[in-house]
Amino acid sequence: MVVDDHLILKLQKLAKLDLDFEERESMKQELEKMIGMFDKISEVNTDGLEALVYMSDSQDKLRDDEVREGLSLSTLARLAPSMEQNYVAVPKVIET
Questions:
Q1: Which of 39, 46, 71, 90 is 20 to 30 Å from the Cα of 31, by its Cα?
Q2: Hey, CA dihedral for 93, 94, 95, 96, is it positive or negative?
């Protein structure tokens, strides 16, 4: 894969980044390094090796789901900073 100015500008647009020339050049160099590392990994001979799903044989110990009674609406209304139509209202944090 060729990391050129066209690719960097496309990634900048997709990620909605505002990069100046120096930042774009730095990003280009970092992407070239990463792709170089992936190219080295792809050169490793894996013939005869079984594909792994997990890196170890250990299993996660999960508890069984239990149905429990949650907070009542009156308790939630008392604890929440603000309620709107029986929902907790929170300030908008992501601009669209």
A1: 46
A2: negative
Tell me the angle at which helices 5-14 and 21-42 cross, rounded to the nearest 10 degrees.
100
Distance CA 35, CA 25 (A): 15
Per-residue burial over 32-58, b = 16 or more CB atoms within 10 Å of its CB, e = otherwise? eeeeeeeeeeeeeeeeeeeeeeeeeee
> DSSP string covering the chain, please?
----HHHHHHHHHHTT----HHHHHHHHHHHHHHHHHHHHHHTS--TTPPPPSSSSS----PPPP-------HHHHHHHSS-EETTEE--------
Please tell me the pTM assigned to this model.
0.50
45-71, pLDDT tens digit by residue? Answer: 999 988 887 777 777 788 999 999 999
Give me the residue spans of the domains in the chain.
5-42
